[in-house]
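As the next step, I wrote out a protein sequence along with its fold in C-alpha cell form, included below for the reader:
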Amino acid sequence: MVRTPDVKRRRMRAFSPTIRRGSRRTLFDRSNRRTGVFDSLSGPARSLLSRVAFLAAGALVGLGLYALDAGGVLVVPLSVVGALVVGELYLFAVAEAA
C-alpha cells in the first residue's frame, strides 16, 4: 500500500508569511509599537541617511531647474549645497529641541 501525504497538514507546516490570529489571517504581523525603519537606526546612521536624503533632494531640484533651463550648469551644484545647508540647519534645530 502506498501512503499519500496529507496535503492539508503539509500546507500548515510550509513557510508562509501569514500568521493566524484568532479567526482572521494577518500578513506580516507586527507588534503594537509604531516604529519605522528610520527610528530603529542608530544615531549616526540616522544622521547619515538624513544627509543623503537632503543631498538627493538638492540634486533633484537642481536637475529640475537645469531641465527647465532656469539656470546654467552651476544651478545643480548650487542647489545641492543649498539643500545641504538647509538640511544641516534642520538637523541642528531638531537636535537642539530634543
Remarks:
- The two ends are 72 Å apart (CA to CA).
- The CA atoms of residues 13 and 70 lie 61 Å apart.
